[in-house]
């Protein structure tokens, strides 16, 4: 009895530690900002709702948010399904490097992506003649750039596990390849498709940085409206109403994604990839190859290649002066290398926090209680830790400023607040990486170990932790790359004399002069290169059962 009680207390403590962190550094700041908007200092009021939802501007922002997210999701599915098939079902030279390349955009800072697409659409850019700067097309292209790999990875990993005999049997019975795809393959992939689509919708609906950089104030989303109402009009009641609207959208997307991912991981059950990886056939796979290469070269590669090319030019001349001046302080008052050092230190601290807490969350959320109430509680706990994926950085950043500014947590002027904020952003990705590995363990393996006399702790130590260790490298890579490029919350918290690299890049782009622009381009290439190397290394450590983000 005592050991059972101690075991339960241990799990309760494992759940309370990350829950306390999330409450103090996410729920409390966000709730404080929202609640302040509903309280005028003396009484509670719903004036914010009536004002904001009676405005045509608000409904325009909501419509653009949902519409752009829906179109982006459809485009990612249309382009991503051929990529999932080609990169996870076929075997050909260069496949693994190509997988790593398409992952890089997901962890790039929005300011870098905005500049990269902006350079393509400048009057002197490659697509300058199309007059797409500041249009919904530019915003949608950037959204697909970010989220294409979500569909490819999520659907592709499950596709690699499908028994090929199902499609072969359908072909033997006379079904055409198209009919086999429609009636056999796609239904089998439906959990992965729904999971990937809901995540793309979530990320697209919360693309604050993309719309701020590329929208040029012509197009507004819920997040940019929250920023406008909070910083420009100081209208907290209206901003609070929009924050709640965003939370509803985020919660619905996370619930749908969570259910789909649970179905998908139950189907995988740690089974190995298909025994036979088919070789590439131009006759059979030519269309998938053409679509994937076009996306990789034009949509993913061209913006980054153009960014690198422009970083080697100044005043129309080919030169390395932009890189040579990375050590100079310049107009921003701090050098790029100093900002990079700050970014590396804070990213390492944020990674340590996020991975440690993510381990606790994954172990707790992967329990398999018999009671339905307990299972529902664990599902709610998982959803709670995924909420930071879609909550506005404006909400969190301003929440920090109004809550963590007095004892006992007076952190507003402390550099420690930046890695904490970055850890909040990275924690959902860590959980998304570790949890599928634990859920895919065959329950019979755990039951057999318990039957043979293993204690619950021995089952965790000998079976679950070794499986979890296989996904640890990928979790560390995601956490580090995400923290390194985080811009939203950090932009509100970084001190002027000690910015992170993404914040410094944004400042440089906002300053006039070819020198600042060129150094910012070079710094963007450095930041993108670090993110790419990190994700390439992490991808090699990815366990095959990790099918979602």
The domain count comes to 2
User: How many helix segments?
Assistant: 22
Radius of gyration over C-alpha positions, nearest whole angstrom: 24 Å
CATH topology of the largest domain: MetI-like fold
The largest sheet has its strands arranged as 1-2
Sheet with the most strands? 2 strands, parallel
Count the E strands.
6
Helix content: over 70%
Structure description:
It is found in: Cell inner membrane; Cell membrane. Keywords: Cell inner membrane, Cell membrane, Membrane, Transmembrane, Transmembrane helix, Transport. Its main location: membrane. This is Iron ABC transporter permease. The chain crosses the membrane at residues 59-88, 100-121, 133-152, 188-216, 236-256, 287-305, 344-365, 377-402, 414-435, 471-494, 517-538. With 549 residues, the protein is mainly alpha-helical. The protein folds into 2 domains: 1-42 and 326-549, MetI-like fold (Orthogonal Bundle); 49-270 and 284-311, MetI-like (MetI-like fold). It is built from 22 helices and 6 strands. The strands form 3 sheets. It has a two-stranded parallel ribbon. Strands 3-4 form a two-stranded antiparallel ribbon. A two-stranded antiparallel ribbon has the order 5-6. Strand 3 and strand 4 form a beta hairpin. Helix 4 (95-103) crosses helix 22. The radius of gyration is 24 Å and the shape is globular. Residues 269-273 have low confidence and may be disordered.
